[in-house]
Amino acid sequence: KSGKTFELQNTDLSSYDKDTLALSVRIFDRHGFRGQPSADGESLVYLTWRGLMSNVVKINVGKGDRPIDLPNDLAYASQFSNVSEAAGGYRWSGDRKRFLEQATFGPSSLLDSRLRRIGLRTWLAEQFEAPYPSSPYPNITQMPTTPPSNCTAASHPACYREHYTMMPLQKWFFLEAMYGEAQLRHRVAWALSQIWVTSGVGVQQASHQIAYYKMLGDNAFGNYRSLMEAATLNPAMGHYLDMARSTRTNPNENYPREI
Asked: Model confidence over 22-73: pLDDT tens digits?
């Protein structure tokens, strides 16, 4: 319900009866960031093993008044029911780490173990379907172009920092890079930001730059034509490359030259 994904660590596997195994797990939170699920509703639990995924089970955690629905299916579970040696991908740890350095914001023992277990194709399929972002975008309201008297850097630095600097976006970006589940989409969005550039100096307000980065994330796995249109119509790009001051009688050629 909260949109968070909690990792589970196996603690015990035992025989329950002739045809049933009992698996014991615990919340695995290596960095102490996700914490424990809130005891106010329902959670979905499933297991993966060598490229296969179990059915989804719904469990109650405390009491809540907003139940969540069981998903009918997860696309990657039906598409990749088994992993052959060829689909398994990189056999050597050095190759897997090199891939993770390209597709994520850095390898970890957990990522390396998962990639070795389920293979490249299943991992990529999971990434294409993973909810994004894991941490919600900062909800920063738009402000006047000129900071009002109650939000200046001198008199109200906290307000100014929140609305007229890139600090909210920077904080969110690194939280998502370090702890987010949708690593591939976040990495592709970052790569696109190095091609479709706007400036945190030239774009004045945090809310504008957050909306621009959200556009890149939404188009990370799309086609380039859609990305061009979305970037062209985005206010942050219009402000950065002067389209906001372009008129029919006095067109500004800065953005067309960049395209």
From this structure: 888 887 776 666 677 777 777 777 777 655 667 777 777 777 665 666 555 4
Q: Are 47 and 33 in contact (CB under 8 A)?
A: no
Q: Where are the beta strands (DSSP E) in the chain?
A: 7-17, 20-28, 40-45, 48-49, 52-53, 57-62
Cα torsion 74, 79, 82, 83: sign: negative
- The token duo for 251 is 């067109």
Place of tokens 């730059």: 209
Question: Cα dist. 34→18, 29, 53, 170, 180 in Å?
Answer: 37, 6, 23, 19, 10
Cis check for the bond before 235: say yes or no (omega within 30 of 0): no
Residue type, 229: E
Each residue of 207-216: pLDDT tens digit?
999 999 999 9
Q: Read off the amino acid at residue 113.
A: S
Rounded-to-integer distance, Cα 186 and Cα 212, Å: 14
Instruction: Evaluate if pTM is beyond 0.85.
Output: no
What separation in angstroms does the CA of 158 have from each of 59, 152, 155? 41, 9, 9
Alpha-carbon distance of 58 to 68, in angstroms, equals 9
Q: Is the CA virtual torsion 50, 55, 61, 67 positive or negative? A: positive
Structure tokens, 54: 């179990």
Name the token pair of 160.
Answer: 């100014």
